[in-house]
Fold:
Amino acid sequence: MYLWKILHKTNKKIQNMKQLIILATTLLMIAGCTQKRTEQLNVIPAPLSTDLQTKVFVLNTDSRLVIETPTEVKERLLAYILSTPLTLASDDAAQSNRLLLRMDAKLENTTSTEGYTITTDDNGIEIEAATETGLFYGLQTVLQAVENEGGMPHGTITDRPRFAYRGMMIDVSRHFFDKEFIKKQIDAMARYKMNRLHLHLTDAAGWRLEIKKYPRLTQLGAWRDHPLWKVWWNSGRLYAEEGSKNAHGGYYTQEDARELVAYAAERHITIIPEIEMPAHSEEALTAYPEYSCTHEPYKQADFCVGNDATFEFLENVLSEVMEIFPSEYIHIGGDEAGKASWPTCPLCQKRMKEERLKNVNELQSYLIHRIERFINSKGRKIIGWDEILDGGLAPNATVMSWRGTEGGLKAVESGHKAIMSPGTYCYLDQYQDAPHTLPEAIGGYLPLKKVYGYNPVPDTLDAEKASLIYGVQGNLWAEYIPTPEHMEMMIYPRILAISEVGWSMPEVKEYSKFHKRALTAVEHLKSKGYNPFELDKEVGNRPEAEKPLTHLAKGKKITYSPRAPYFDGYSAGGDSALTDGIRGGWNNNDGAWQGFIKGGADVTIDLGKSYPINSIGADFMQICNPEIFMPAQVTISVSQDNETYEELTTINHDVVRDDVLSFKNFGWKGETNARYIRYQAKTGKFRGWLFVDEIVVE
Ligand code: ACM
Structure:
């Protein structure tokens, strides 16, 4: 009995243990299903906050679409959803296996006007937002998750943008891109929650919008005698009559432009038209020379600000523009005015006297103020490039900061809004990878990682000023971008970095994670017929720039001849730059290349004591668009006492103008002993700049 009892007890224990194990396994299985997801959701831009599990809700052919919004919103959302891969049947009574979109104005405080929440469980996916825009963006998140993750992970997403303005500019003047191309880019912008498309519609290279009152703007100003901007720019810059056999270019009719505005609006994107003034206006002033100072075609880039007829013209043009584009903001350019004819133009001089304007900057400011009053009188506002600060900022203007960030910061300091698009981070016309692997670009080196690293709000800005940073914009200037395929290669994937800079909070940003998501996005874009840069084949920066170099002259004192100083704007850190061990990358403006403009460089390095030396050399860069050339002659000499020098070599080089970025070492190899090294480099027939990063002594 006792034995039986013991056996029985043991048996029970075993049974209990079995049950325990089963229970534990079940619990583990349940826990497995609801395990917290640690990976970032594979969507761009990264949402504000996610609390997700590993379990995924998968939409299938039985899933139903439920839209709880006012009828007209529902119709618009349905029409949009039908244009996406989410072609679900609609059934407002569906309680499970559903994708629900619910609009509730009371949610505004928690989700902002563009924000949304997504809640996912076994019954399906629910998107909630205070506005139609919020629902639209929630839908973009679902679309990307479904495509990239196979479904939506259970849990919640709460999301809203960091900045209200998330823009892309396309320069359709330097090369014309047609309506269908623009629509295709609008589709992608919507996917990545970008909401402003700035069209640079006018510039010397072509006027791209039909203006009924001034037909010559497009009959002549929209066409030129060569399809490629670079050839045209370097060979006479002639315009051509529409329909003539030499006419290359194009323009949007007002009907085209209205179609684009509507297409963009359906995707929650505002098109901001830019009409350049007072400069970049050669095409307008060749079509209508009477609005330039001398009334001669082909002579001037700037409007005559002294002539009241100029204002009548500009206001008539802007009136038609505002009829077509409902945007709250109209961009009026304002950049890079040469102002060359104003000092000698009697009407401009008369205007300056009458208005007590001290200089031509104030004359430009007069024009911007007067145009602002006109635009404000129609209930709209102006945006201008940061030069509109010169001579006094118009009272209600928003500044688009491109020459660095100073303009934008100055604007917010004085209570104005600023859109940040500094060249160093946002000019997507620069090379995004090793230049020898890419078609010709304007220059520079702006890889995805650098764009992604941009923070539009410096830490030094207080909260009130920071709130005036309206947003960020990527700019696609098209001088060197002649085809749609090339333009897409320049846009993608870097605009996705702009999207995340504009939408996501710094806390959720991490480049290595973004890079993974961008690789997925590139594949998606390719599958949809876009031509993105092949991010997985990125070569990266010039290898020499990747790590500091140790050599005999590193950290040693260097003296510059007063006749050949470096240029302050390209000092690369000053007197130590050529012996700091830091090598330059693909970009002459990356802070490692030192630039000389006055005919050459002439420096002496003091090693501190005599050393045996086997080689002395330095790399130079050549990129002809910004007039940076190889030296025509390099002389290297050494000395023990800094008085008597022995010349080791003189190298003569035939400088040839070309289209490629190149690097070349000018050096000497041999055996010598010396304490002082003199390195002299001279420019050749093209003069221009010399750029050198380090004098390496071994
Ligand atoms: C500009 O790049 N000129 C605005």
